[in-house]
## 1
Amino acid sequence: MNATALHRPLPYDVEAIRAEFPVLHHEHHPGTPLVYLDNAATSQKPLAVIEAMDDYYRSYNANVHRGIHKLSEAASAAYEGTRQKVRKFINAGSKREIIFTRGTTESINLVAQTWGRANLGPGDVVISTVMEHHANIVSWQILAAEKGFSIRYIPLQADGTLNLDVLRTWLRDEPVKLVTLMHVSNVLGTINPVAEIASMAHAAGAKILVDGAQSVPHMPIDVQAINADFFAFSGHKMVGPTGVGILYGKRDLLEAMPPWMGGGDMISSVNLEGSTWNDIPFKFEAGTPPIAEVIGLGYAVDYLAGMGMDKIHLHEQIMTEYALDRLSEIPGLTVYGPQAAQKGAVAAFTYEGIHPHDLAAILDNEGVAVRAGHHCAMPLHTALKINATARASFYLYNTPPEVDALVAALYKAKQIFAV
Ligand code: 7TS
């Protein structure tokens, strides 16, 4: 028995929720249950999402926006229905501001290759941060090499938060056109004050892109309250399928932006001399989209909204408090990032004398799935002066006994390495 207790009661019946996620009931190894703690990489899917995609393929599979026939009308209605659900979920002003992409990565690249390509040039400055996922670094580096603007990265403070004084100075002294940063870190769990940063950026005449890959699945989001110009996230991290993501953009910006990919659906008319573009959002959705995935995403949004994002966030805060308490009992283990109150449901750590990859392999033997490595955040690990971390990340279906299983597996790893 451990002496650590939950600080507060959990807000809902987790076992009832777990019953809806088939993967969670598979044995990881014969006789060993799965403890899935790799939710920052991707989340598991509830039956409602799996069955909605199955139903589309079985009952009304057709292309969207094209056919006059009944099947295509049903597929188009379901596809466009998701756009409306997503609009409401993040409180966008209009469903025209919701563009379907393949994921956060593609959403960021879309902004770089359209808004960025049209608006950034020599002398301009883009501000990012050292804690970014590679998607929000490399996309800008590729464009900077071509366009000749510079990129500055907001440094970390000792507590794992961003140094906003540095941002303030740059916004005052430099020709900053864009601030692009993550809402919640996939390694440190740091929740960045994006609404405050948006108002700082706007006061300096800059735009702001928020990478919401690790926030939208875990907390209530209001893109208008944040006043984000662009907001990117992925379906697969929010109990939806892979292959679909979202780019929210303010209507006037999207309307002024040139298209990125050319093809079907994104045009108004085509002749051999040139073409004109469809209205937003279709201007940015060239070709047959991931129809089943978009439909599945709609059911994922229904699922999360039905549970209530504030309840999900509370559950995760309690889980994070508990996990950090329990991990702090382990001698030689270092957790990176802020304290539980300012942190998303992520605990990235190193354990004295054991490489994170070895640790992850031993945990896997015990049924505990975590990720090890740089988590697509190499500059962050460089800033922390480490090569890699092991990372446990929690979601709406994780339980305190699963944290206990993680801790027990960590003690076992220590025993193995002590021999
Ligand atoms: N931004 C953040 C903050 C992320 O955590 C991720 C994925 C991405 C962007 C890219 O999302 P994608 O859906 O386009 O791939 N993060 C992780 C992770 O932490 N482990 O695996 C994927």
## 2
Amino acid sequence: MTGTAYIQQIQQMLLALGADAGLSVPALQQKYLGANGAFTVLAKQIAELDPNDRKAAGRPLNELKNALAAAIAAAGSAESANDWVDLSLPGKKPAVGHIHPISQAMAEITRIFTSIGFTRVRYPEVDWDWYVFESLNMPPDHPARDEWETFFVDRAPDSKKGQMVLTTHTSNGQVREMERLGEPPIRMINIARCYRRQQDVTHTQMFHQFEGLVVDTGITIQHLKGTLDYFAEQFYGPGTKSRIRPFHFQFTEPSFEVDFSCHLCNGTGCKFCKSGWHEVGGCGMVHPNVLRAGGIDPDVYTGFAFGWGVERTYTLKEGLAIDDIRLLYSGDLQFLEQF
Ligand code: PHE
């Protein structure tokens, strides 16, 4: 065979190959590169050529063969990858984080109170004795202070404001807010970390409270009760009621404990609430001494205040009986991912 005839055979094979482009990968492999494939046959025929033509014929044949083998290999791997797409398999769920349940509750509490004109404020969580106790009608050595198991900061006391403590309740925001505004009206919602020296399955040393304070002319217990009812319905759902029972706090007069009707049984009594009610926190009409401490004239203005724990407020809503409340702050994803 002459070199020209040989090149013509290569060209014919290429034309055939173009027409065969739609064949499957194994079929192409067999027809062109297999033991009796077109390339194999042509490669063998090189031996029949004039030795001077062999190089000129062999090189293009080899290059074409390598290009075809590479194309077939690429198509083959794409095809075999496709073989594994099983559309009936469930998809892979991307890991999505979410806001910590207590942060979610704080956002919801903020939304509810700001929607009726309260302003969310932040005050120090390490604060002077004056704001945490004394200005709230609890002079040094007053026995009422014992209720708040206080952490004291190891530093020299201020001559006027006393020792520095970790805030035991958000009530430290009351006089601070009066000072900030100078003059009523005041409608504050203060949500913050609080600290008490107790730790067991129902208490963490760090927890959160939210505190409401309203001071204006003509503020009465009715405004307090209406605000509590509004919160109860908004947070726990329509039909939830609030109930106030006489109690004692140094910084409110009169003082009450606050209960909400159980939203799981509509207040009829169930395994979760037992009596139909859940005790949540404290409230009352701001004591005249507290108004005075904040520079507000109690003969002109009256006010109410309330405050209690975010953790309990939240777990009640979810109907959660968490065995150990400390799990909320454990950082344990298995626990947190449930919410
Ligand atoms: N600070 C009180 C507590 O921690 C709750 C409270 C707030 C009571 C405001 C009355 C008014 O128990």
